Please model this.
Amino acid sequence: MAKKRKANQAISDAVPEAIKTQNAKGKETTITAASGRSRRLTVKPEALAILKALEPDDPTKPSNKAERNSGSAAVPAASAKIQAPDVPKSRSKVSDTSQAQGTTTTRKNSGRSVKAPHHEEGKEKMQQEDSDILDQAEHEGNEVNYWLMKAEPESRIVKGKDVKFSIDDLKAAKEPEAWDGVRNFVARNNMRAMKKGDLAFFYHSNCKVPGVVGTMQIVQEHSVDETAQNPDHPYFDAKSKADDPKWSVVHVEFREKFPEVITLKKLQKYSKNGGGLENLQTLKSTRLSVSKVSKKEWGFIIDLAKSDERATSDDDTSRLAQI
Model:
């Protein structure tokens, strides 16, 4: 009887500041005090039930058979006042991590990561805006496609009208611009394949320095090109009827003008075997006014534009230093 009282007293003394291990079997259990010393005691079922009831919820307790068998689940301290020993990382799918400088909480759930605001938010925002123009192309429900579309930036009179249209004209437009005048079936079919949210390079053609000058976005999918049915329009087509239209337009909006033209010569430089633009459609079908661009080619040309921008910035800095 004295032995049982002694055991129950040991439990009473240990419970507020102890860690109970996972190997309780029957009436025997191991009590490990905060000091690290352990005693194996014979415990009444009632006392063991009380001990378990006093035990705090363990968020790291194994939840499946595989984890129980592995024996690697973390065992937390029963009292918040006690410094718990080193504990292995939780197997939970949701993890919180904190950084020493400004708390950053990252919650990972089903592969997604969300960061709480902290002191580097402004820096991250700038990096995000500068990271890649591909981010501009995200739109719900559709895969983004990329294109290259040509227009003439220098004046040329056809039927008494100037067909000039440059990236500056697009930038100055107050509303989405209809990309009309396309009279090639391959180019027309490419436009009919465009989806709202797609991105396109603006290419200056039939000019002194042809090349890619910026980007624009498709904001309205294809509709009838009514200019083809207008006898006064430079690109009138008598075969295109109101009840049987042959040609289409898409509507575009300005997105960006590059600081320097990515010239045709520069594009051709990377079109050799193994080059990043060896399969660029506009270099293979030079008379095609609307052509496809792969995601890889888009990124490659964007990188060229950024390298030109950095070079221009470095030149400006150098000139200022000399003043």
Observations:
- The longest strand covers residues 248-263.
- Residues 14-26, 59-127, 129-133 have pLDDT under 50 and may be disordered.
- The first helix runs from residue 2 to 14.
- DSSP finds nine helices and 13 strands in the chain.
